[in-house]
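thread from #wetlab-drylab

HS: before we spend reagent money on co-crystallization trials with magnesium ion, can we at least see a predicted complex? here's what I'd submit
DV: go for it
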Amino acid sequence: MKLAVTGKGGVGKTTVCALLARAFADAGRRVIAVDADPNATLAACLGFDDPDSITPLIEMEALIEERTGVKPGSQGAVFKLNPRVEDIPDRFCTTKDGVRLLKMGALKRGGSGCYCPENAFLKSLVSHLFLVDQDVLIMDMEAGIEHFGRGTAQGVDWLLVVVEPSRQSIDTAKRIKSLAEDIGLARIGVIGNKCRTENEREFIERSVSPLPLLGALPYDDGLRLAEQEGRPPEPSRAAVSEEVQRIIAQLENEQIVKRTLS
Ligand SMILES: Nc1ncnc2c1ncn2[C@@H]1O[C@H](COP(=O)(O)OP(=O)(O)O)[C@@H](O)[C@H]1O
Ligand SMILES: [Mg+2]
């Protein structure tokens, strides 16, 4: 099952990714978590020791040169657009408590940056990850999905949009929905977060309709404190884990339906 998690900045994408990754791993699934946000915080959120010491793939210049045929930063050289990447997950994942992690690093932007060996390498890797048969792939994306290509999108089972009870995060979700439809991504699900009341959950459900609300995590001080102290999210309220399980059950259920139909 391949999940890409998106939403406005600060809504709880990384927290939700970490909670889902952990819950899938605890249920015995093989999990690969991909940090595709340039402002990479997933490793810390998953409790990896010394997360800053994990080198993002985009900074592995020798590897990128070996695969694309061109040294990053060289001007005007012709590089391979689809470099070989299939061995990357096994060789470069860091593992913690059954969750494997790949840290992507920031795509180069602007000028010739969009068309450079580093970006070709990352894009090829993302497409590959979305196509190969992994048990659970969960990608923490940077806000917005402009960087999400058509080819990549086709491999995703779900685009999960995290929404908090605010007009702004709902507007972002709607923009993501229309972008996602433009690139042919069918299945989008919303995960509510930081809901303090039942009314807030209903507000989200109403506002994002017709997108399905797969679950809504309550506001939980345990999660906020854990982040402040640099620990993995540790809910203090049972309702957090219950919602996570509810979300997983729905994702699994759809997966079974999809398999039966195909
Ligand atoms: N359900 C929640 N209750 C309370 N705080 C939360 C909850 N979910 C996330 N947070 C806090 O909100 C902040 C942003 O969360 P984060 O997952 O880093 O967001 P994003 O990845 O979308 O930028 C963090 O301090 C995190 O601990
Ligand atoms: Mg984040």
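DV: The pocket of magnesium ion (ligand 2) is lined by residues 13-14, 37, 41, 140 (CB under 6 Å).
HS: ok that's useful, forwarding to the group
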